[in-house]
Structure formats: structure tokens, C-alpha cells
TrEMBL record:
This is Uncharacterized protein. It comes from the Eukaryota.
Length: 246
């Protein structure tokens, strides 16, 4: 697993090693509120407003993270890209990470995830690109000794990258007590009533299909692309969600 220095610091954003030994970013807004982001999977594990109330449900499937990249980008493929410490009370803090990987078919993939925090507001964005086109542009002349391997690599670069379920997912507490995800039933189309129980308003861009499922004090949700995605070389899909305290 990649390791961060003992501490990275940019204003109100600091990166240190979490309890599991993985890099963990802590964003603390000057106007109140904070969140923590675990680098593996770029998972937001905790989010609190100025009142100190935890809004994200914990557990193995809890928090806020990408969806639909399983088997393509491993949680350990992510590396820290940038920290933005912000300035005044109205500014945002930001943490971003970048990943390079290959699908099971050998298609080169690049992805970026960014977390932004304001006072009373949290956003997560995701961008996934089929990097085959870019690799072909910079391709060097073939080595005769490796022609067969190079041909296989070329074929993988022109294959599409299927992302049928790409988007973002999250788990919210439905009351003031922090919950733990487990035993949540089947997902249904997201409704305003479902989010009313969390005290949080959801807004999406790009990943506009919302599905949710509730169990006790926990509500899980997904925001997905409106159609099944199959990226061609050089194409990119992106989207974001924003959670605002009501």
C-alpha cells in the first residue's frame, strides 16, 4: 500500500496516517464543519457540520465514495494529487486523488476524485477516462522482439471501456445518532421524502439517476449515470454530488 509522509499540510487540510496505516486527509473548515477522507478508494468516512453531528453512516459499506469501478480501479491505485487549504469562511477546502489502472481486458484507465468542503456543505466529484487514445498518440516504434505483445496491447487500447453502473454512492444517518451500515434492503428510485429523514439535501450533476434504500437509522443511496456508459479511446465520463445541511 502506498504511504504518505507523516504529515502533509495545506492550510486547513492535513494528511496523516489513519488508524489502519493508510493516508487520511482531514479537512477542517474555519466556519465550522469537518470531514475525513481515506485515500484507499477516496472514501469520505466522516462529515460533521458546525454542530458536531455526524452525518455519514459508518461500517464497511458506509461513507461516501465512487461506485461501479470495482474490478477496474483497486482501492490501492489512488495517489494524492492536491490539497487546497482555502481562505475565508466562504471558501471551500479540497482534497483530490488520481489513479491509473487497466481493466481486465487491458484497457488503460485514468480517474480523478475530488472532495470539497464548505461550511454546511460537502461535494464529491468523479472523472473516469479511457486513456487508450492518449497512449496511442505517444506510442514509440515497435520493438521487433516484442511485436506480438505490442499488438495485444494495441488491441486493448481500442477496446471500449464498459462502465454500466458508474457513479457515486453514500450512506447517511437518519437521525442524530451515527449509524452503521448493514442489512439495508433493495434500492428504489430516490425520493425527496427519503432525504428529508437525513436532514441533508442532495444535488447531482452528470450522475443524475438517484436510488436509495433505508433501514433503521441508515439510508444508503447511489447517484448513477442516466445511461449505460461504454467509453471509447479518449472519451471521459464525469459527475458529482453535493450534500447540503438543511
Amino acid at each position: 500500500m502506498s504511504r504518505a509522509p507523516a504529515t502533509l499540510l495545506a492550510g486547513n487540510v492535513a494528511v496523516s496516517l489513519g488508524p489502519d496505516g493508510a493516508p487520511m486527509a482531514t479537512l477542517t473548515h474555519p466556519a465550522g464543519g469537518s470531514c475525513q477522507v481515506s485515500l484507499p478508494g477516496v472514501r469520505v468516512t466522516t462529515w460533521k457540520g458546525a454542530d458536531g453531528v455526524e452525518r455519514l453512516a459508518g461500517g464497511p459499506d458506509g461513507g461516501l465514495l465512487s461506485h461501479g469501478l470495482e474490478g477496474i480501479i483497486a482501492s490501492t491505485d489512488w495517489t494524492i494529487e492536491s490539497l487546497v487549504g482555502g481562505g475565508g469562511d466562504g471558501d471551500s477546502l479540497a482534497f483530490s486523488a488520481f489513479a491509473e489502472a487497466r481493466s481486465a481486458d487491458g484497457v488503460p484507465v485514468r480517474s480523478r476524485a475530488e472532495v470539497r468542503l464548505w461550511a454546511g456543505r460537502l461535494a464529491l466529484s468523479l472523472e473516469v477516462a479511457h486513456a487508450g487514445g492518449e497512449e496511442m498518440e505517444w506510442e514509440e516504434e515497435e520493438d521487433p522482439a516484442g511485436v506480438a505483445d505490442e499488438r495485444r496491447a494495441k488491441r486493448s487500447r481500442i477496446l471500449p471501456l464498459p462502465l454500466p453502473d458508474v457513479g457515486l454512492q453514500g450512506s447517511l444517518c437518519c437521525n442524530e445518532a451515527a449509524g452503521s451500515v448493514g442489512g439495508v434492503g433493495g434500492y428504489q428510485d430516490g425520493t425527496k421524502d427519503a432525504f428529508d429523514k437525513t436532514g441533508v439535501r442532495l444535488e447531482t450533476m452528470g450522475f443524475s439517476v438517484v436510488k436509495s434504500a433505508s433501514s433503521g437509522s441508515v439510508m444508503q443511496f447511489k447517484t448513477l449515470a442516466p445511461t449505460e456508459i461504454a467509453l471509447q479511446p479518449g472519451e471521459t465520463v464525469s459527475g458529482s454530488l453535493q450534500l447540503t445541511l438543511c
